[in-house]
Design goal:
This protein is of the alpha/beta class and 210 residues long. It has a domain of 143 residues: NAD(P)-binding Rossmann-like Domain (Rossmann fold), CATH 3.40.50.720. Helix content is 38%, strand content 21%. The strands form 3 sheets. It has a 3-stranded parallel β-sheet with strand order 1-2-3, covered by helices on one side. Strands 4-5-6 form a 3-stranded parallel β-sheet, sandwiched between helices. It is globular and about 55 Å long.
């Protein structure tokens, strides 16, 4: 079966959603995980979760050069620059043409949801984490592909208090290394500077301290 896929702090929504995904679908994980995460720091959480649950291979795609550079330290099995590479062809090539068992989209770009369906193996699962812009929330997914390839499209977000508890347990237990997720710390009086950095997309996660 193929799946393509800092000091401790309070959990992020993506940690909670990663926990929910593993809790519900971990038993179905195979030997190779494709992780398709193009925006935000969620790709880090899903990589750690996939490895903790025994994924054989984890492949990561992104369009951000700083995030790709930061991800090198975590040694994914394949690191793809989605701005320069046909990632659907690459995942097909690296899975012997079969496609991925599990694909995770962790970004607000509708194109990646289309690509996720195109790179899925027959019977594969696509986890959709990341809301789309209201004016562009209907990606052109080929539903015949979903039907004839027997794919499962899974939407996820926070919807129960126990996911917050689970996220804390994942961080406290070391399954999610928070020190790798947090990239900068700012004093509360420097909130504007930190917020501007976060909005620039150049930070993974920022912590404000008093």
């Amino acid at each position: 079966m193929r799946i393509v896929l800092g000091k401790r702090a309070h959990p992020h929504q993506s940690v909670q959603c990663a926990g929910r995904f593993v809790a519900v679908y971990a038993a179905k994980l195979g030997k190779t995980q494709w992780q398709f995460a193009v925006a935000g720091n969620a790709l880090f959480e899903y990589l750690y979760m996939a490895r903790a649950r025994g994924a054989g291979t984890v492949m990561v795609a992104d369009i951000s050069q700083p995030r790709l550079a930061a991800m090198e330290a975590d040694h994914p099995d394949l690191l793809l620059d989605a701005s320069k590479t046909d990632i659907v062809s690459e995942v097909r090539r690296h899975t012997g043409g079969a496609g991925a068992d599990v694909i995770i989209t962790a970004n607000p770009d509708p194109v990646t949801q289309v690509q996720a369906v195109e790179m899925a193996k027959k019977g594969g699962r696509v986890l959709l984490f990341g809301g789309l812009p209201t004016e562009n929330a209907t990606p052109g997914i080929n539903m015949n592909t979903v039907h004839y390839q027997a794919l499962s499209l899974i939407g996820t977000t926070i919807f129960a208090p126990h996911h917050n508890k689970q996220a804390l347990e994942l961080i406290a237990g070391g399954m999610i290394p928070a020190e790798r997720i947090i990239s900068q710390r700012f004093a509360l009086q420097d909130f504007k500077t930190g917020a501007e950095l976060a909005l620039s997309g150049k930070a993974r996660k920022i912590v404000f301290t008093t």
